[in-house]
Amino acid sequence: MADGQQIWNFPGITASADGIRKATTMVAAEESQIKGNLTTLASIWGGASSDTYQALQLRWNTKSEAVNQALTNLANAIDQAAMDMASTESKVGARFV
């Protein structure tokens, strides 16, 4: 702030973490639906190209799970940071009472 005052929007910070969780859940649901459709297709597909696809799909699944976990960790870290800052804000405010 221009006047040196810090203002924290704790509900907004928490809403951001919730937004990350919601988006992660939505993407995971879409991905699950797509996997179901591809599994049906892959079950009738054979040969070397099928093996290549299966390896690539496994790689995708692994990386997707890692991204989803990273986003979950980010949302949790944002929540924890908001709680820590709210606690600090409360303690600092109590010093001036």
From TrEMBL:
<dbReference type="InterPro" id="IPR036689">
    <property type="entry name" value="ESAT-6-like_sf"/>
</dbReference>
<comment type="similarity">
    <text>Belongs to the WXG100 family.</text>
</comment>
<dbReference type="Pfam" id="PF06013">
    <property type="entry name" value="WXG100"/>
</dbReference>
<dbReference type="InterPro" id="IPR010310">
    <property type="entry name" value="T7SS_ESAT-6-like"/>
</dbReference>
<protein>
    <recommendedName>
        <fullName>ESAT-6-like protein</fullName>
    </recommendedName>
</protein>
